Amino acid sequence: RAKESGKAQYTIFNPDMYAQTLQLLHLERDLRQALERQEFCLHYQPIVSLSSGQMVGFEALIRWQHPERGLVFPGEFIPIAEEIGLIVPIGEWVLEQACARLRQWQLQFPQAANLKISVNLASQQINHPKLSEQIDRILAVTGLDGSHLRLEITETMLLHHTEATIDMLLKIRSKNIQLSIDDFGKGYSSLSYLHRFPINTLKIDSYFISQINPNSENVEIVSTINTLAHNLGMDAIAEGIETAQQYAQLKAWGCDFGQGYFFAKPLDFHAAEALIISNPQW
Ligand code: C2E
Ligand code: MG
Ligand code: MG
Ligand code: MG
C-alpha cells in the first residue's frame, strides 16, 4: 500500500501496537510449549449424507485449551504455527489423534464401521517430503484403513503446486486415502486445471451456502459447483448448512453431503461418541 500511494509511510510507535506485539510474542511462546503440555484437542463435526440423512463421518477440527485464555480457535493460532514452523509437528499430532479416535470408535461401535475422518492439511505438510511416511506410520500404529481417511487441502495449494505436490497427492491416493478441496470457490478457482489433480471431493465454501436464503437471487453458483464436481467424477460437500431450507435445496440439487450447525456444531469427543451411539437421522 505504501508503495502504491507513492508516499513513504512511517510507523509511529504507539502503546496499542506495543501491547499487540507483546500479545503475539506471548502466544508464540505458549504455542511452542502447547504440544508438549498436551493442550491441543480435537473437536468433531458430523458430515451427513443429504440423500439418506445419515452421518457418514466427521471433520476433525483442532482447538487449543490455553491455561489462561481458555479455548482458542484455529483461526487464531494456525497461521502463527505456520509462520513459526510448528505446523508440521502439530499437523502430525492431529493426524494421529484423529485416526486413533476413529479406529477406537470403529472397534467399539458397529455404527462407526463405515465412518470416515477428515483432516485439514496445511501447505507445509503437503510439501513436506516425509508426509507420506508419517501417514504410513500413523495408519500402522492406529490400525485405521486408509480408505477411512480423507485429507482436506485448499485451492491455493493446487495453485502453487510443484511436481513434488502432485507426486505427494498421488502417493496419498495410492494408499486409498481420499482427497478433498476445502473452501472451494473461495480462492482463485483453478477450474482450468482441476481435472489434473487426483481429487475425490469438492467442499463448497460456506459463503455460497449462506447465499441460499429466502431473499437471495444468486444461488445458481452452488448448483453449478455441484454439477462441476459430478462432471469431474467428484462428490460435493456443502459447508456451513445452517437452515432446513438450505438442506432441502441442496438435497434437491443432488448435492452429496453436508456439514453445518443445522446438523451439529463441532463436538468434543464425548458428545461425538454420544452421537454415534444415538445414530441420528436428519
Ligand atoms: P474449515 O476446514 O473450512 O472448517 C470449517 C469451519 O467452519 C470450522 O471452523 C467450523 O467450526 C465452522 N463451521 C462449521 N459449520 C458451520 C456453520 O454452520 N456455520 C458457521 N458459521 N461456521 C461453521 P473452525 O473449527 O474454527 O476452523 C477454522 C479453520 O481452521 C478450518 O476451516 C481449517 O481451515 C482450520 N483448521 C482447523 N483445524 C485444523 C487443523 O487441524 N489443521 C489445519 N492445518 N487447519 C485446521
Ligand atoms: Mg476443512
Ligand atoms: Mg472448509
Ligand atoms: Mg471454511
UniProtKB/TrEMBL annotation:
Highest taxon above the source species: Bacteria
Entry keywords, A to Z: Coiled coil, Phosphoprotein
Keyword Phosphoprotein listed: yes
Domain EAL as annotated: residue spans: 24-280
Biological processes per GO annotation: phosphorelay signal transduction system
Protein name: Two-component system response regulator
Entire protein: shown range: 458 to 739 of 739
